[in-house]
Amino acid sequence: MALTLPDLPYAKNALEPHISAKTLEFHHGKHHKAYVDNANKLLEGTGLEKEDTEKIIKEVAGDASRIGIFNNVAQAWNHSFFWTCLKPGGGGRPTGQVAKKIEVDLGSYEKFAESLKNAGITQFGSGWAWLVLKEGKLEVMKTANADTPIAHGIKPLLTIDVWEHAYYLDYQNRRPDFLQAVIDNLIDWDFVNSRLA
Ligand code: MN
Fold first, then answer.
1. CB-based contact 70:57 (threshold 8 Å)
2. Which among 88, 135, 97, 91 has a CA at the least distance from the CA of 113?
3. What is the pLDDT of residues 84-110, one digit of tens each?
4. How many distinct structural domains can be found in the chain?
5. Distance in angstroms (rounded) separating the CA atoms of residues 85 and 186
6. Residue 1 pLDDT > 80, yes or no?
7. Ligand 1 mean position to 168 CA, how many Å?
8. Distance, CA 27 to ligand 1 centroid (Å)?
């Protein structure tokens, strides 16, 4: 099996009240699991089964005949990455190298936070908001559906899932409130610093 469903790095209720146990139960246990299961089914017999996930994403990106593989493998990667970007008691101003780099590359923490929130709000339909390292500089970007910076040779440092399944049980249509809650309370800046190092 090329892909596995990782355990959440915290208890299902650990991110409450910002993300409920019920949301994580469905988001990790049903949605993420389905991407992993579908990816493994679609990879059978392709010769890619044992490849590294990031390598598979780069290999099939842009190939219309393998869009199903791309969608499921990229979504499996994006979700595994998303869980590690969160922690209870996180969010707010970062420390360390990323704090300095945000000031240099993006102006200020406030500008960064606004930009990340805006990327998530303005992603029409399903997708992801990201902080990435591109040509040595921090950038905020958004991707649609399963698309991922990995497919474009850009290094992801942080992501927020803005598919409706990420927030609908807790916030219904209030995607901006979900984004604000994650930014203020859940981002694991130690993890982001480790990606930057
Ligand atoms: Mn999701």
1. yes
2. 91
3. 999 999 999 999 999 999 999 999 999
4. 2
5. 8
6. no
7. 11
8. 6
Cα of 79 from ligand 1 centre, angstroms:
6
What is d(CA 113, CA 119) in angstroms, rounded to the nearest whole number? 10
CA of 167 to the centre of ligand 1 (A): 9
Q: What is the three-class DSSP state of 134? A: strand
Instruction: Check whether residue 149 and residue 106 sit in a common domain.
Output: yes
Q: Does residue 102 form part of some domain?
A: yes
Q: Are 174 and 181 in contact (CB under 8 A)?
A: no
Q: How confident is the model at residue 2 (pLDDT cuts 50, 70, 90)?
A: confident
Contacts of 18 (CB under 8 A, 6+ apart): 170, 181, 182, 185, 186
Omega before residue 17 within 30° of 0, cis: yes
Average pLDDT, the chain: 97
Same domain, yes or no: 78 and 117: no
Distance 10 CA to ligand 1 centre (A): 17
Domain annotation covers residue 133:
yes
What would the pLDDT profile of 172-184 be if each residue is shown by its tens digit?
A: 999 999 999 999 9
Whole-model pTM over 0.90 = yes
Query: What's the CA-to-centroid distance between 128 and ligand 1, angstroms?
Result: 9
